[in-house]
Amino acid sequence: MRRMMLIDNLQYANWSEKIFRQLREGGVDAIHVTIAYHENFRETVLNFEKWNRWFEQYPELIMKGQWASDIDAARETGRTAVFFGFQNPSPIEDDIRLVEIVHTLGARFMQLTYNNQSLLATGCYEDEDMGVTRMGKQVIKEMNRVGLVVDMSHSGDSSTIEAADLSERPIAITHANPHSWAPALRNKKDDVIRAVTENGGMLGFSVYPHHLKDKGACTLESFCEMIARTAEKFGAEHLGIGTDLCQDQPDSIVEWMRVGRWTKEIDYGEGSASSPGFPDMPQWFRDNRDFGNIENGLRATGLSEEEVAGIMGRNWYNFYAENFKPRG
Description:
There is one protein chain. With 328 residues, the protein is an alpha/beta fold. It has one domain (7-248, 276-323): TIM Barrel. 39% of the residues lie in helices and 12% in strands. The chain is built from 11 helices and 9 strands. The strands form 2 sheets. Strands 1, 2, 3, 4, 5 and 6 form a 6-stranded parallel sheet that branches. Strands 7-8-9 form a 3-stranded parallel sheet.
């Protein structure tokens, strides 16, 4: 077992025994996995069921994660703790009472938007950001109460800043990078990162090529220097990893992610019409066995051992410990 705790706070893989074994080979102690993009409540329940079957099939490799203490149990038994999240509020439909239900089932993160305007807030692809809606304000309160973390990874700037200020508990951007380093539409400007971190929240750095400087040709040195500079600006204790790894997924999944049920046209999003599928990953991060490259790259920037340990997992662990439990 690796000495340094390792948590990846966003993956959406085509899950299989192969990937579960790679998690163990890479020493990944915990992952946050997306189990809903556009699914309604009933469809999301079926995804919970699918994961329950995997937990039964591979009990020596993975276990369900609900609390930070489950990561300790996973480390002690040589397994990976799996935490659930939604990239869209679609699983709660238009019913605020479902917030508590999905938390009881095991959900721990929920984005208020996925690129588009939702019932709760504005997505980062909309022309105008109208901020958090009336329902959104009520849902944030309920999420705070039950311990479901507000995730603004795909939200507009104003909506994200407003959510960070409205929420009584810290929020997260689970998978994005600074816009100043790589000006992708989904990456976050400094005022957005500042609003999240000053309120105690977290930013998870993504290795998804469309979020990287020079995309798949991004160097490990560039990526790790970006993290080090972000630590100088906003504090290393607010930073972690959220790779957005979409391993072994067919191109049809990209279409589902981008299009869902909301359009008859193909929305290429961060891709392009000439290359609509998944982009090539950087050579230094192909799968879960490559986290050691990031760890060593961070050390090479001059970050302290404590800072590196925090970014690689300890910061997410502390965030989980504070924010997953319901308030009395």
